[in-house]
Amino acid sequence: MLTVLLNWFYMIFAFFCLGFAFSLFTGKALHYSIKRVDSILIAGLAISTVYAQIFSLFYRVNIEANVVLVIFCIVVCVLRGKQMMELLMRAWKSNSWIYKVLLLLLFLVWGFFTSRGYRTVDMDLYHGQSIRWIEEYGVVKGIGNLHGRFGYNSSLFAVSALYSMKFLLGRSLHGVNGLIAFLLSVNVLEMRKCFKRRKMLLSDYARAGAAYYLSTIWDEVIAPSSDYAVMCVIFLIVIKWLTQLEAEEGDRNLITPYALLCVLGAYAITLKLSAGFILLLILKPAYVLLKEKRWKEIGIYLLMGLITATPWLTRNVLITGWLIYPFAALDLFQVDWKILDVGAIRTDAFQIEIWAKGANHLGVNATFDLWFPNWFQNELSVTEKLLIAADIASCVMVLGMGAVVLFRRQWQKLDVMLVLLTVMCCYLFWQFSAPMMRYGYAHVLLLAALCCGYVLERVKLAGFAYVFLFLYGGYKLYVGYDYILGCCRLPHYVWQETYETYELEQYELDGVTLYYSPSGGCVGYDLFPAIPMAEYGVELRGEGLKDGFRQKSDGNTP
Length: 558
Prior knowledge:
By secondary structure, this protein is mainly alpha-helical. 64% of the residues lie in helices and 3% in strands. The protein has 21 helices and five strands. The strands form two sheets. Strands 1-2-3 form a three-stranded mixed β-sheet. Strand 1 (505-509) and strand 2 form a beta hairpin.
């Protein structure tokens, strides 16, 4: 736990310096400065991730990447240290001592959760090895040929490698998800204001959904899984967007914060491609900017989006030979390290969909009327069934509201409708593609919470929401307390619980030793390079691992 907290102090320092520098840029280029500390930290998180990916294209993401990062942060502190301290002091003095205590408590509690917990299977199957490849070599051409899961390129792996501190501690920390969860919980704390104003805003219902989500991942946030990171970022985008819409002071027609949140949406896609529909929010800033012919700003935002997405797309091509993997329909590159077995690629993507639907025993051609009842009945808990039922009703409600808005030309409601339609499309994409709850909890919760909140506020029954939040929040606090009691004796108060160690066997690939699991299972982190099963259909592209892998010429599949 101590190493996690120290690691977080370093990450927060880097995030703040990077985010503050970005705020200076937006102040000059867009005449908009980011003033909230948590927003600056979120911007720093995204910039750190982009930086780690760019660095990985040229070299390993290890001590060298951190040296460059620290030098940049020190330069920012030297040049703008006074302004940074003034911002921090204003934020500190503007909050009550109760809020500060809660903030410290959240920091310690999430540090506790991140130091121990349930390690998902994928953590030891390929997450650890994916991160270690980045630590040791950066991007490796054709590594997806060695093991298909290495082709699932998430920008989270790059930023996890940047802050793993293996070069300093001798082991790889994995605390990025925990810090992202903490940043989301800071935003959830803003719900306290609803008691003062005696009214819940739509953003408060989104925060309530985020609070529920955080209560489901506290025992899993130790894993460096992209699922948790992307869900938290989507919650942050929607909460920030609604908060901006609800602002009572200032220029409510200010478009810059919405455009910047759309750039954050592009960042969410680099975490996991399934977040793509969040970019429907771009319709609002795009409409205003094009209508007012603000070409310079349009160019700046497009450049930001390209800078955010291009390193991720480049890594995709270098790792697999495909721009977007595992989607074989977009075939643009003919490189020697390309994964050539198109059938296997499509099968891999199809298997993910089938398993998520719980339809693996129903047959490959199971239609909606077959897999949905089976999925609903057998794959969901009681609470999840209630949420899905609420989402189905919410879809009908959103479509009905949209029709009324268009028919009556109630253009003043378009802002809220855009948010509701976006979360509905996110939910529907998840529902009909790979509906495993872990993959789309944010979509499920946001749609139900926002539609429920909209109805309760309209019919003046928000009091029920207060009672429900109070009772269910108390129950969740008890569950969390019980969980802490159950694992507080685990000896992880200094070191974070790390990857599991497995008995592996080894084999030779063009004179290089690789490890594999004799049972085709987990391999952990320590033995490197390791894969679940020995792969004999690939060969080295050069003399060593850094040159990458390709399929053997006699094993190519056109």
